[in-house]
C-alpha cells in the first residue's frame, strides 16, 4: 500500500529562482524504509520538508494514503507524522532531557502517562535514562541526537522523517538507532524516510534508496541493487614501507604515505586490473598488510555515479 | 482538553525558563522601575496627573511584551532550530506562539503587580484601580496580538524583521503618551492616534479612571478596532509563514 504518491513534484525558493526539485515522481510504501541520498544542497532536506508540509510546493502533487496532502487537516496529519530535522538542534538547551520529552509530547497531544511510559522505554533503549534529569545544554552532540530521536518516536507515528539521524553517534548508539528503525518498520509498520551521508546506515536499514541529482531522481530502487551497481570499483590497500609510483600498474590511484606504511586507493578499477596490481606489487616484494573493497563512503559512490554519466538510469 | 495540554506545556516550559534565567527577570524589573521613575521625575511629575501617566506606562509594558514576545520568539526558535518541530505539531503555530505569549504576559503582569507595589512605597504616587480597566486592557491585548502575529509572520519570511521590533516598541512608548501627554502632541498626530487601537485603549482607560463613564459605542468601536487588528495580523501571519520556512 502506498503511504505517499509523489507526482511531478517541483520546488523553487522564490518565483524567479531556479527549481531545486524538477518534477520528482515516486511512491513510498507503508512500512518501508526509504533512504534519500545525494550530495550536499541537492534538495534532500527540501524534499523531506515538502513531504512534511513544512514547505509549500511550487508544483506537482503529493498524496498521503490516497488523499491530496495539501487538503488534509494539518492537525490530523501532524498526529501521524514525526521528524528529526537538522540533528541536535531540535531541543531546548535549558530544559532537561525528560522536560524536553514532556514538552514535545504534550504538544503532540499525548497523555502524560503515555509520555512517561514511552519515554522510559526509549530512554533505556538509547542509553539516556541516567541522564534524563540533566539539562540538555550539558549533553554531548550524540546525546542531543538521541534525545531528538526519542522525541520523534513518541506517540508511535505512522511516518517518521529522519534527516541525518546518526550524525555524531557512537557505534553502539548508531546500532541501537538502526535496530530501532528496523523494528519500527517491520513490527509497527512505520514508514520511515531517512537521509544520511553514512552509507553504512542506509545500507543497514533502507529497503530502497532514492538518489537525487541535479534536481531529479538519478536512481530509485532496492538498496542492494544500488550498492551492487555503483560500489564495486574502488579498492584500498596498505603496504608496508614506501611504494615507488612506477610499481603501481594502474593510472587512477591515490598514494598516501603514513609513516611506516603507504595507503593506495584504486579508483574505478576492474577485478582483473586489481589482480594485476596486486601481483605486480607482490612480485616486487612489497608486503601488503591490508586490502579491502571500499564500499562505505557515499561521497565516493556519488562521485563515481556522476562521473559515469548515469543520470538517465532511473 | 487539547487546549489545556498546550497551556500546561507552555506554562511549565516558561516557568522552567524563568527559573533558569532568573537574573534576567530581576534585571527586567529593575530596568522597568528605573524607566518609570526617570520619566516620572523627568517629564511628568509637575505637569500631569500621575494616574494617567501610570496607565500609559502600563499599556506600553503590556503592548511591548505581547508584540516583542510574538515576533522575537519566532526569531529565537529559528535560531535554536526548534521552529520545524513546532510547525509539525497538531496545534497551529500561531496558537502555540500566542499561548506562549499570553503566559509570558501573565508572568509579566505578576511582576508588574510587584513593581507597582515597590513604586507605591518608593515614589510619591497614588494608584487607583477600576474594574473597567481590566476589560479595556483585555480587549487591547487582542489588538497587540494582531500586531505581534503580523511581525511574527514577517519574521518567518524575512529573518531580519525581528530586529525592527524594538523600534516599534519604542514608537509605542511615544504613542502611549507616557512621555508627552496626548493633548500636548501636534493636532495631526492626535488625529492619527485617535484611530490606533493602542492609544484608543489608553484614552478609554484614562477617561474611565477619571470617572467618565464610557458609552457602549466607544467600547464597541474599541473592540472592533482591536478585532480588525487581530484579523489582519493573523492573515499576515498565515500568508507569510506559509511561504518559506
The CATH homologous superfamily of the largest domain in chain A is termed P-loop containing nucleotide triphosphate hydrolases
| Helix-strand makeup class of chain B | mainly alpha
CATH architecture of the largest domain in chain A: 3-Layer(aba) Sandwich
Order of helices and strands of chain A: EEEHEEHEHHHEHEHEEHEEEHEH
Tell me what you see in this structure.
The complex is a heterodimer of chains A (314) and B (245). Chain A has 314 residues and is α/β, with parallel strands linked by helices. Chain A has 2 domains: 2-229, P-loop containing nucleotide triphosphate hydrolases (Rossmann fold, 3-Layer(aba) Sandwich); 233-294, Alpha-Beta Plaits (2-Layer Sandwich). Chain A is 35% helix and 27% strand. Chain A has 10 helices and 14 strands. Chain A has helices at 44-52, 74-80, 97-107, 112-125, 141-153, 171-187, 199-205, 223-230, 271-283, 298-307, and strands at 2-12, 19-29, 33-37, 59-64, 67-68, 81-84, 159-163, 191-195, 208-213, 216-222, 235-240, 253-258, 261-266, 288-293. Chain A has a 6-stranded mixed β-sheet with strand order 6-7-8-3-9-10, sandwiched between helices. In chain A, a hairpin with a 6-residue loop joins strand 1 and strand 2 (19-29). The two termini of chain A are 22 Å apart. Chain B has 245 residues and is mostly helical. Chain B is built from 10 helices and no strands. In chain B, helix 3 runs antiparallel to helix 5, helix 6 (131-157) runs antiparallel to helix 9 (197-209) and helix 6 runs parallel beside helix 10 (216-243). The radius of gyration of chain B is 18 Å and the shape is globular. The mean pLDDT of chain B is 82. Chain A binds chain B through residues 13, 49, 52-56, 74-76, 78-79, 81-83, 85-86, 89-95, 99, 102-104, 106-109, 151, and chain B through 2, 5-6, 8-9, 12-13, 16-17, 20-21, 80-82, 84-92, 96, 242-245.
Amino acid at each position: 500500500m502506498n503511504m505517499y504518491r509523489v507526482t511531478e513534484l517541483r520546488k523553487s525558493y522564490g518565483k524567479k529562482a531556479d527549481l531545486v526539485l524538477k518534477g520528482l515522481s515516486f511512491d513510498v510504501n507503508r512500512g518501508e524504509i526509504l533512504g534519500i541520498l545525494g550530495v550536499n544542497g541537492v534538495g534532500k532536506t527540501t524534499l523531506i520538508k515538502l513531504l512534511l508540509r513544512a514547505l509549500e510546493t511550487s508544483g506537482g502533487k503529493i498524496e498521503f494514503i490516497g488523499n491530496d496532502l495539501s487538503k488534509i487537516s494539518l492537525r490530523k496529519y501532524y498526529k501521524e507524522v514525526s521528524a528529526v530535522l537538522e540533528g541536535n538542534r531540535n531541543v531546548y538547551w535549558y530544559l532537561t532531557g525528560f522536560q524536553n520529552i514532556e514538552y514535545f509530547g504534550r504538544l503532540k497531544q499525548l497523555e502524560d502517562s503515555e509520555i512517561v511510559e514511552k519515554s522510559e522505554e526509549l530512554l533505556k533503549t538509547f542509553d539516556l535514562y541516567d541522564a534524563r534529569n540533566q539539562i540538555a545544554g550539558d549533553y554531548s552532540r550524540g546525546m542531543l541526537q538521541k534525545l531528538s530521536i526519542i522525541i520523534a518516536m513518541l506517540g508511535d507515528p505512522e511516518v517518521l522523517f529522519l534527516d541525518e539521524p546518526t550524525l555524531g553517534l557512537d557505534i553502539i548508539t548508531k546500532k541501537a538507532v538502526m535496530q530501532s528503525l528496523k523494528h519500527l518498520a517491520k513490527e509497527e509498520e512505520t514508514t520511515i524516510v531517512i537521509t544520511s551521508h553514512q552509507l553504512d546506515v542506509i545500507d543497514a536499514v533502507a529497503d530502497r534508496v532514492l538518489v537525487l541529482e541535479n534536481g531529479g531522481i538519478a536512481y530509485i530502487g532496492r538498496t542492494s541493487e544500488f550498492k551492487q551497481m555503483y560500489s564495486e570499483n574502488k579498492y584500498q590497500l596498505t603496504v608496508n614501507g614506501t611504494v615507488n609510483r612506477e610499481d603501481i600498474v594502474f593510472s587512477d590511484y591515490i598514494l598516501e604515505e603514513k609513516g611506516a606504511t603507504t595507503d593506495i586507493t584504486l579508483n574505478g578499477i576492474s577485478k582483473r586490473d586489481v589482480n594485476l596490481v596486486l601481483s605486480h606489487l607482490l612480485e616486487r616484494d612489497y608486503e601488503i598488510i591490508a586490502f579491502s573493497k571500499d564500499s562505505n563512503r557515499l561521497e565516493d559512490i556519488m562521485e563515481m555515479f556522476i562521473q559515469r554519466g548515469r543520470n538517465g538510469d532511473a | 482538553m487539547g487546549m489545556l495540554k498546550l497551556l500546561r506545556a507552555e506554562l511549565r516550559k516558561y516557568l522552567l525558563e524563568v527559573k533558569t534565567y532568573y537574573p534576567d527577570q530581576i534585571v527586567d524589573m529593575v530596568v522597568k522601575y528605573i524607566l518609570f521613575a526617570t520619566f516620572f521625575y523627568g517629564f511628568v511629575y509637575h505637569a500631569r496627573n500621575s494616574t494617567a501617566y501610570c496607565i500609559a506606562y502600563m499599556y506600553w509594558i503590556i503592548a511591548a511584551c505581547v508584540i516583542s514576545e510574538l515576533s522575537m520568539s519566532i526569531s529565537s526558535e529559528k535560531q535554536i532550530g526548534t521552529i520545524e518541530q513546532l510547525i509539525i505539531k497538531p496545534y497551529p503555530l500561531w496558537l502555540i506562539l500566542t499561548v506562549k505569549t499570553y503566559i509570558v504576559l501573565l508572568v509579566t503582569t505578576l511582576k508588574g503587580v510587584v513593581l507597582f507595589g515597590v513604586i507605591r512605597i518608593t515614589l510619591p504616587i497614588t494608584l487607583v484601580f477600576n474594574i473597567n480597566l481590566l476589560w479595556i486592557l483585555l480587549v487591547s491585548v487582542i489588538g497587540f496580538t494582531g500586531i505581534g502575529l503580523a511581525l511574527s509572520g514577517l519574521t518567518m519570511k524575512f529573518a531580519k524583521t525581528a530586529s525592527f521590533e524594538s523600534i516599534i516598541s519604542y514608537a509605542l512608548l511615544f504613542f502611549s503618551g507616557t512621555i508627552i501627554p496626548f493633548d500636548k502632541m501636534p493636532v495631526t498626530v492626535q488625529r492619527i492616534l485617535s484611530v490606533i487601537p493602542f492609544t484608543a485603549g489608553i484614552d478609554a482607560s484614562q477617561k474611565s479612571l477619571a470617572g467618565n463613564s464610557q458609552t457602549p459605542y466607544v467600547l464597541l468601536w474599541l473592540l472592533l478596532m482591536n478585532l480588525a487588528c487581530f484579523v489582519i495580523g493573523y492573515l499576515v501571519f498565515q500568508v507569510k509563514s506559509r511561504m518559506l520556512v
